[in-house]
Amino acid sequence: MHITDLLKSIAIELNANVSSKEEAIDKLIALHESAGNLTDSKKFKEDILKREQDSTTAIGEGIAVPHAKSSAVKTPALSFITVPSGIDYSAPDGKKTDLLFMIAATEDGDAHLEILSRLMVMLMDADFANSLRNAKSAEELLRLIDEKETEKSAEEKPQPKKDGYRILAVTACPTGIAHTYMAAEALEKAGKKLGYPLKAETNGSGGAKNILTKKDIEECDGIIVAADKNVDMARFDGKPVLKVSVSSGINKPEELVQKIIDGKAPVYHHEGDGAADFGSEETESFGRKIYKHLMNGVSHMLPFVVGGGVLIALGFLIDTIAGNADVGGTFGFTNSIAAIVFWIGKAAFAFMLPVLAGYIAQSIADRPGLLPGFVGGVFAASGYTFNSLIENQNLVGDGSAVSGFLGALLAGFVAGILVNLLKKAFSWLPQSMDGIKPVFIYPLFGTLLIGLFMLVVNPVMGVINGAVASGLSSLGNTSKLLLSIVLAGMMAIDMGGPFNKAAYVFGTAAIAAGNTWIMAAVMIGGMVPPIAIALATTFCKDRWTKEELKSGPVNYLMGLCFITEGAIPYAASDPLRVIPSCIVGSAVAGAVTSLFGCACPAPHGGIFTFVVVENPLGYVIALIAGSVAGALMLSLLKKKKQTNEV
Fold first, then answer.
1. CB–CB of 203/171 below 8 Å?
2. Strand 97-106 relative to strand 77-87, pairing
3. Residues 276, 129: Cα–Cα separation, whole Å
4. Is residue 596 within 8 Å of residue 614, measured between CB atoms?
5. Biggest alpha carbon–alpha carbon distance for the chain
């Protein structure tokens, strides 16, 4: 199979009339659709945009290769456009992009990936890229590609010197289709140019290729890891390693190779058996690091919160159906069936804080941080203090010293930092002890230290946690209204991003503290955006494209199920109109929940949890009011489409 087998003339447009990245993507997708390569162009666009969110697919030197593996792809294929005036595609070199290939890859089967990687390598040749720019017809372009591929296949792969490869590399990008192979080619060329044979292992979609052997690693001068996802690092222990992003491997390969030659790469020491993060040699802001560690904890915590919270809510529902009243604070488990469901949910929910703290610590210190983090989270949830343990002689906490969500956050970060300090403190031990340090020394001392730390800070954090909970509980109607508006609006700002997650995490923490009215505003704020968009596409059809209209009704279901991400494709295509409209709609819904005194004890579930909401009728009114407000604003802001656009 050749590259030209994947690129049809009908999927080529020279001198395309596009003026932005968004228009270029739409044009390339339209070419795929006209060639019969897709089953669902809307779904494929969502996958393309999702890949673009990870990092730009612009390579530099005027080239971009947007790509995605998608269930909407009928057959592996390429589409291609040239844009003489160039467009801003967020290229790493800041130059305009005028040469764009779009790769449509199927989810199953990787036989085509070798062909696509060959194209990526060919594009690294500036003369070849220029010949494509100057092609006068689709037929000429296909001939140029075919000739270059034949020439490339005939070239013999450079053989390493007898003393082996001097420099090794590992390349990997999230999808493993384009950047992986381009970085490998760039690094191998740089090594050849500088007289240092280089072998590059590609961690592509079809698995690792050209794998580095034990002998390669032992004999090399250093390793370059150019990756945007985790790779196996344990094998490089004790070798000089540069860790950078995959785009750095493409754009500055000679600089990286020269650093290895000059001995400027730090020696890598692997701790534990987990994979190391990429990009540690590049600048990462302090705030970004904090956010990354926090999100690692939150992402692992959410299944416990959602599963446990919904089961607890079901316990309440079953008791409600059974006609039981809240006697002595036992509502939810007076009925035997309700009790079983309730306590299963309670057991899952109890892991929320230990998991949060454990995985924050693991993100900071790798696996040795997991146990100390878990223990710190348990202490935060239970309120253990020196007095409570000494006086009771058993694991009985002090209710006033329960530091809750804030304590678990502190425990996670402190546990990770403590373990990293222990790694430095025990670095003097002989290499023969390396195997025992991550499984015995670090967890042992880390757990002891975090336990002592939490016994000291729990009384203080307990006071702070109690003050926050009491403050929220004692808020007046005006304050509750404002907070509900802000939190609901935050859910619509980035629909799954940092603002959305910050509001959601605040809501789940509030449930644990008993302030379930906060979760009511948070959940309704996340439900409104997809429903508002669905309403707008239903009643104002002349403002949307055919593809947008086709996907509109699906957003009713997504919104009702509390899946805010259903609005993302619409927000991505027209952010200046869609996002403000969704924020306003969500804020209106949040305000109504506050005015009606709604409260939600379940952290997820959407419409399925309405039966356990306090004042469910008011909650339904809030959802309708917010969705209608968002839809009306969006319909007013959106311009009517021309007939040929609809």
1. yes
2. antiparallel
3. 36
4. no
5. 87
Q: What is the dihedral of CA 291, 296, 298, 303, to 10 degrees?
A: 160
485 membership: H or E segment, kind and range = helix 477-493
Give CA–CA dist 514/496, Å, rounded.
25
Lowest mean pLDDT of 7-16, 25-34, 491-500, name the range. Answer: 491-500
Average pLDDT value for residue range 444-450: 94
Residue 567, token pair as written in the block: 């609005």
Q: Which residues contact 23 (CB under 8 A, 6 or more apart)?
A: 87
Q: How far apart are the first and last CA of the chain?
A: 38
Count of other CB atoms within 10 angstroms of residue 522: 30
Nearest to 534 by CA among 503, 561, 501: 561
pLDDT attached to residue 644: 44
State the Cα–Cα distance between residues 34 and 38, nearest whole angstrom.
9
Would you call 158 helix, strand, or coil by DSSP?
coil
> Mapped to the 3 state alphabet, what secondary structure does 338-407 carry?
HHHHHHHHHHHHCCHHHHHHHHHHHHHHCHHHHHHHHHHHHHHHHCCCHHHHHHHCCCCCCHHHCCHHHH
638: exposed, middle or buried (Cβ count in 10 Å: 0-12, 13-18, 19+)? middle
Strand partners, 241: 223
Q: Does the pLDDT at position 481 exceed 80? A: yes
The pTM assigned to this predicted structure is 0.52
Query: Measured at the alpha carbon of residue 63, what is the angle toward residues 59 and 67, in degrees to the nearest 5?
Result: 70
Structure tokens at 242: 């540069």
What residues act catalytically?
A: 67, 173
Confidence band of 164 (pLDDT split at 50, 70, 90): low
345 token code pair: 């949910």
Phi, psi of 173 (to 5 degrees): -125, 165
Residue 478 CB: number of other CB atoms within 10 A?
9
**Which of 516, 496, 480, 534 minimizes the C-alpha distance to 599?**
516
Residues pairing with 7 in the sheet:
78
Non-local (6+) Cβ contacts of 522 within 8 A are 487, 488, 491, 503, 504, 506, 507
CA distances from 200 to 130, 166, 298 (A): 27, 11, 35
Left if phi > 0, otherwise alpha if psi is -120 to 50, otherwise beta: which for 615? left
Amino acid type, 340? I
For residues 36-58, give the mean pLDDT: 87
Residue with tokens 């104002």: 540
Give dist(CA 309, CA 301) in Å, integer.
Answer: 12
Task: Give the per-residue pLDDT at 444.
Answer: 92
In the Cβ-directed half-sphere of 242, how many Cα atoms lie within 13 Å?
30
Greater model confidence, 399 or 265:
265
Q: Which residue reads 């429903």 in tokens?
A: 531
Rounded to an integer, what distance in angstroms lies between the CA atom of residue 219 and that of residue 212?
11
Residue among 316, 344, 318, 341 nearest 330 (CA): 316
In angstroms, rounded to a whole number, what is the distance separating the alpha carbons of residues 389 and 387?
Answer: 6
How far does Cα 487 stand from its chain's mean position? Answer: 22
Q: For residue 46, give the H/E element and its range.
A: helix 41-54
Return the structure tokens found at 133.
């720019």
CB within 8 Å of 621: residues ≥ 6 apart: 592, 596
Residue count of the chain: 646
Given a contact cutoff of 8 angstroms between Cβ atoms, the answer to whether 488 and 440 are in contact is no
> With contact defined as beta carbons under 8 Å apart, do 351 and 304 qualify?
yes
15: alpha, beta or left? (left if phi > 0; alpha if psi -120 to 50): left
